UniProtKB/TrEMBL annotation, chain A:
Transmembrane segments: none annotated. PANTHER family: DYNEIN LIGHT CHAIN TCTEX-TYPE (PTHR21255:SF4), T-COMPLEX-ASSOCIATED-TESTIS-EXPRESSED 1/ DYNEIN LIGHT CHAIN (PTHR21255). This is Dynein light chain Tctex-type 1. Pfam families: Tctex-1. Belongs to the dynein light chain Tctex-type family. InterPro entries: Tctex-1-like (IPR005334), Tctex-1-like_sf (IPR038586).
From TrEMBL, chain B:
This is Cytoplasmic dynein 1 intermediate chain 2-like isoform X17. WD repeats lie at residues 486-533. It is found in: Cytoplasm, Cytoskeleton. Residues 77-95 have a biased composition (Polar residues). Pfam families: Dynein_IC2 (PF11540), WD40 (PF00400).
């Protein structure tokens, strides 16, 4: 019994989190063009929404959510991240979204308590 | 169950005690108004005593208040936890629960996320001009055409017999020189203000010229000295140059003033000619300059379709003559001398007209220099030269081309060390852009011998190399450089030409290559194998050229003096027309006239032959393009059949029936 519980309740489920991220991003900036005045608001909204949804899952996890919105100007962007954690329980999910005027990269890291 | 009842009873008792307390407090308050000080302390003690009495009567164990509260507080928690016993114990047991649930955690490093957004590559175009810093031009004139003069020019001019020495006459308006009059031709002194001569000399309104004229008309008899002086002057030379050209043309014209339009007594030559497919029209040769020199390249002027530039190799018999010669011939007039004569120190391997500048002629030489001649000047030597440095070319330049549009064009030159340089015509001191053409698999550079840009293309091109392979490459973009390789021939590729005839079907992906391995091959950019191989020749094939108007017609020349015209819609096995030149010289170059009715052939004795191509052969009919499509399809099918036959013949007899 206890093993089942640890796999479902105490493991990072990537698909679930990925859906949450997609919904949040689409809802906030889907269909909008890059606007310097609004970008701050967007990033905040996205991060808060995702964090809210993810904590509602009531899992014993610590979460870290990052959101990068970059205007499409012809510049290149290169990031990388690496983690040292327990692979069986911890995980992350990154979603890359773009439209004609901007890129949006959201990462959610979940670390089991 | 008992326990619960007990607990409930305890609750009730507590409630009762609380009620009593409240009652007592109310009474106390009422009494307080009467007796304040003494009665404050008393009721507290009474209350406590009373509660204690009550509780002790109930049998509840009395420790301190704390323990009672704790046990009472524990009641709500029990309903939550599945194991009620454990919740009443101290917190120590709580941590024990957590400890038992924590597993052995194994931590590992995970490379989680990478985001890569590549930058947009933008190709930029840069145009700049630069004046050379070699001359210290103190007194420059606004009418000067050339600020550039080279210090080593005198070396070349010394060898000339009829060069125009730079000299000044004693015109009052010009600058006094520090040397006296020259009597010996060929001792030029190159001065900075020399261009000013040309400007002032040409303008008849300048006072200097007027003075000169007065001088001439004033005295009746000119002494020998004065005559010499006039003949040596700049103005005289430029006038003489221009006038002599015009007179020459007029003298050679043989317009028949007795022409008879009624047609009686004269045979019409039209019928005869229509039967002849290839006939000699003219031969251009200059005894002084083109004799015994191999012709290395041809080009037509875009603005004047009768002008043809031919570049020549060196003449081994006459080592003192300049090694590289470039002549401009005029097809319109019947005179047998070239329009312009240019030369330079190193054999010219490739020459072309600057497409958008009618007066500039460019040449690529054996020494790796790219030279620029101008026919506005009276000089026969280059007005601009690229440096002999590692930034430019250090190997023979076999191909020069002007590509681009009127406002955005470049000179492109490739040398046999694979270096591709792109130049601006204003500035030959450094190339605008250089590139090494190396095939990805080999680290060696491609030794380019021939180059062709497809019609309408400025970026992609095809090159033939010394190893016998053909490469496609492009100039700009992220994949600048060699793209594909075709294993073409077994010997160096001598000529490459991309399809030029424009019609309703686009064949610009086709190109022809000729090589020392006796074959001419037809290729398509879309396929890595040749479409067809023409093997009718018995000697090295030196050049091949598509007709500019007929989609299926091309010409090739070989080392035995044979000029072949192939019409692929007619016959793909044998040339449609073939002729051997008089004396069987080795023919080095072939090119079609832009009108498509004449073929120009150059041989290794310095002669240029103009052949007329019969109307029926040269002019395409309206269905030639569709016929050519069919011809190509047939060739492809034949190729497939050949491959199949080869496969079946290789296999053993037992299997052959199965495959068929």
């Amino acid at each position: 019994m206890e093993d089942l519980q640890t796999t479902e309740e105490t493991m990072f489920v990537v698909d679930e989190v990925s859906n949450i991220i997609k919904e949040a991003v689409e809802g906030t900036i889907g269909g909008n063009a890059y606007q310097h005045s609004k970008v701050n608001q967007w990033t905040n909204t996205i991060v808060e929404q995702i964090l809210g949804h993810v904590t509602k899952l009531n899992k014993p996890f610590k979460y870290i959510v990052t959101c990068v919105i970059m205007q499409k100007n012809g510049a290149g962007l290169h990031t990388a991240s690496s983690c040292y954690w327990d692979n069986t329980t911890d995980g992350s999910c990154t979603v890359r979204w773009e439209n004609k005027t901007m890129y949006c990269i959201v990462s959610v890291f979940g670390l089991a308590i | 169950m008992d326990r619960r009842a007990e607990l409930e009873r305890k609750k009730q008792k507590l409630a009762m005690i609380r009620e009593e307390k409240e009652r007592r407090r109310r009474e106390k308050e009422a009494k307080e108004h009467e007796e304040i000080v003494t009665r404050i302390t008393k009721p507290d003690k009474d209350l406590r005593a009373e509660t204690e009495e009550l509780l002790s009567s109930l049998g509840i164990p009395l420790g301190n208040d704390g323990s009672l509260i704790r046990s009472l507080n524990a009641t709500p928690e029990t309903s939550l936890s599945p194991i009620p016993d454990q919740s009443l114990t101290s917190t120590q047991s709580g941590t024990g629960l957590l400890k038992s649930s924590r597993r052995q955690v194994k931590l590992s490093v995970v490379s989680v996320h990478q985001a890569n957004i590549p930058p947009k590559e933008s190709v930029t175009y840069n145009k700049q001009t630069q004046t050379a810093t070699s001359t210290i031009d103190k007194e420059a004139h606004p009418l000067d055409y050339y600020v550039l003069t080279y210090g080593d020019v005198p070396v070349e001019e010394e060898g000339e017999g009829c060069s125009l020495p730079s000299n000044d006459s004693e015109s009052p308006a010009l600058y006094p020189r520090h040397h006296g009059p020259h009597k010996v031709a060929g001792l030029p002194k190159i001065e900075m203000v020399r261009p000013a001569h040309v400007a002032e000399g040409d303008n008849p309104l300048t006072p200097g010229h007027a003075d000169l004229q007065k001088k001439v008309t004033g005295t009746q008899d000119l002494s020998e000295e004065e005559k010499q002086q006039i003949m040596m002057s700049e103005e005289f030379h430029s006038f003489f140059d221009k006038a002599s050209r015009i007179v020459e043309r007029a003298l050679y014209e043989d317009i028949d003033i007795c022409v008879d339009y009624t047609g009686i007594g004269e045979e019409q030559e039209g019928d005869d000619k229509s039967g002849i497919r290839l006939s000699v029209n003219r031969c251009f040769v200059d005894d002084r300059w083109s004799k015994n020199r191999t012709i290395t390249s041809f080009d037509w002027s875009a603005q004047f379709p009768e002008l043809l530039v031919a570049s020549y190799n060196n003449n081994e018999d006459v080592p003192h003559d300049p090694d590289g010669v470039c002549l401009i011939w005029n097809l319109k007039f019947k005179k047998t001398t070239p329009e312009h004569i240019f030369h330079c120190q190193s054999p010219v391997m490739a020459a072309c007209f600057a497409k958008f500048h009618p007066n500039l002629i460019l040449g690529g030489t054996y020494s790796g220099q790219v030279v620029l001649w101008d026919n506005r000047s009276n000089k026969r030597t280059p007005v601009q030269r690229s440096p002999l440095s590692a930034s430019a070319h250090t190997h023979p330049v076999y191909c020069v081309h002007v590509v681009g549009t009127q406002n955005a064009h470049n000179l492109v030159s490739i040398s046999t060390d694979g270096k591709f340089c792109s130049w601006s015509l204003d500035m030959l001191s450094t190339p605008q852009d250089t590139m090494e053409l190396t095939h990805q698999k080999q680290s060696r550079a491609v030794a380019v011998t021939s180059l062709s840009f497809p019609y309408g293309e400025f970026n992609n091109f095809v090159v033939g190399s010394e190893e016998g392979s053909v490469y496609t490459a492009c100039r700009h973009g992220s994949k600048a450089g060699v793209m594909e390789m075709f294993e073409a021939h077994q010997g160096p590729v001598t000529g490459i030409d991309t399809h030029r005839a424009q019609g309703h079907i686009d064949f610009s992906h086709l190109f022809l290559t000729s090589s020392i391995d006796w074959t001419v091959k037809l290729w398509s950019l879309k396929e890595s194998k040749p479409v067809y191989s023409f093997e009718d020749n018995g000697d090295y094939v030196y050049d091949v050229s598509w007709s500019p108007i007929h989609p299926a017609l091309f010409a090739c020349v070989d080392g035995m003096g044979r000029l072949d015209l192939w019409n692929l819609n007619n016959d793909t096995e044998l040339p449609t027309a073939s002729v051997v030149l008089d004396g069987s010289p080795a023919l080095n170059r072939v090119m079609w006239a832009p009108a498509g009715h004449q073929v120009v052939v150059g041989d290794d004795a310095g002669k240029i032959w103009i052949y007329d191509v019969g109307e029926q052969l040269a002019t395409p009919k309206s269905d030639e393009w569709t016929m050519f499509m069919h011809t190509l399809q047939e060739l492809k099918n034949n190729q497939v059949d050949q491959d199949l036959d080869a496969l079946t013949s290789l296999s053993s007899s037992g299997f052959s029936s199965g495959i068929r």
